[in-house]
Amino acid sequence: MDLYEHQAREVFKSYGIAVPDAAVVDHPREARRAAELLGGRVVVKAQVKTGGRGKAGGVKLAADPAAAEITARQILGMDIKGHTVRRVMLAQPVDIQDEFYVSFVLDRAAGVFLAIASAEGGMDIEEVAATRPEAVAHIPVDPAEGVTDTKAAEIAAAAGLPAETADVLARLWQVLVREDALLVEVNPLVRTTDGAILALDGKVTVDDNARFRQARWGDASEVRDTDADPLEAAAAAKGLTYVKLDGEVGIIGNGAGLVMSTLDVVAGRGARPANFLDIGGGASAQVMADGLDVILSDRDVKAVLVNVFGGITACDAVAEGIVRALDSVHLTQPLVVRLDGNNAARGRAILDARAHPLVEQATTMDGAAARAAQLANR
Ligand code: GDP
Ligand code: MN
């Protein structure tokens, strides 16, 4: 779960990291009032859970409260990479001398955290990283040792950051540890013309497994709000795990292991998965119907593969779910179904009896994947 910038800002502040004064509003008229309270001149910033807001026109300077209202009106409702702006943050502008990039991120492969830092932060950090990787320092952090003052000084020195940033690095590490974050990032961390070090932007990704400890950010359904992919939100609302991918075969299976191997088999047959949806181990007919509904709403899907090994969920229940879904959703793409395991024969008979022209059955996983790939690639 990612926090909004204004939430990350509150967290930073509570750990003693300096941030500009700010207010969050959802209406242009409130923006005018907030700007008055902040001293008139403000930076108006779109609150969406995606980066690159500056380049997308979602971060703008307003000279006075009237301009803040106009700017807020422009930014509110704006679409930034598929995220609708519903709130803006107004922040006191600062005079920037230098922009730095600092982050701590979990490196799963190496089993350590990484401090990533650069003296060339700001909106072009991706380009800096791509064209001059030597300008971005990567320092492993042993989670058992953490970021001591010495370690913080080492990171700052390696990245060419001024020594005063070490204190922020140590505090940022505390944010990561105590807030159960997988990522904390400040870009830009700035040195102002008066020499103050301030976090002007913030990204915090809280580990979803720690939600029970970090409950103040809301539950899953609340956080997967307006910003989430609409299909992911629809699936989450129904308690289903749906993941969007970039191919053309929609995949439904029961259980993470089976679904993962289905992805592999489809890829092995020359097609790419468009998404996958795990209906879980104890799926009912209703769950199957909900799942198909979600998958068929994905416009990239050219064929759907349902691969179910009946266990606790018997195949006849799955088949009934498919039949129910066929009644409620208008099937426009071919559906290949492979049912095996508990009550497979009964399940296949139910689908045969429905005799939908776009539904085919296959008896093996490989055969089903090959057929779905063939249909998708037509
Ligand atoms: P992002 O594009 O989504 O990462 O949004 P940021 O919050 O990082 O803002 C983009 C850029 O706007 C920053 O890199 C800064 O250069 C600039 N910016 C943000 N806040 C201020 C400010 O208070 N004063 C000035 N002068 N520039 C700012
Ligand atoms: Mn930024």
Describe the structure.
The chain has 378 residues and is of the alpha+beta class. 36% of the residues lie in helices and 26% in strands. It has 13 helices and 18 strands. The protein has helices at 5-14, 28-37, 65-75, 125-131, 149-159, 165-178, 220-223, 230-237, 256-268, 285-296, 315-328, 344-354, 365-376; strands at residues 22-25, 42-46, 59-62, 79-80, 83-84, 88-91, 96-107, 112-118, 136-141, 181-192, 197-199, 203-206, 241-244, 249-253, 273-278, 303-310, 335-341, 359-362. The longest helix has 14 residues, at 165-178. Bound molecules: guanosine-5'-diphosphate (GDP) and manganese (II) ion. Manganese (II) ion binds at residues 187, 201.
Task: Give the key terms.
Dna Ligase, domain 1; D-amino Acid Aminotransferase, Chain A, domain 1; 6-stranded mixed β-sheet; alpha+beta; binds manganese (II) ion; Rossmann fold; 18 strands; 26% strand; binds guanosine-5'-diphosphate
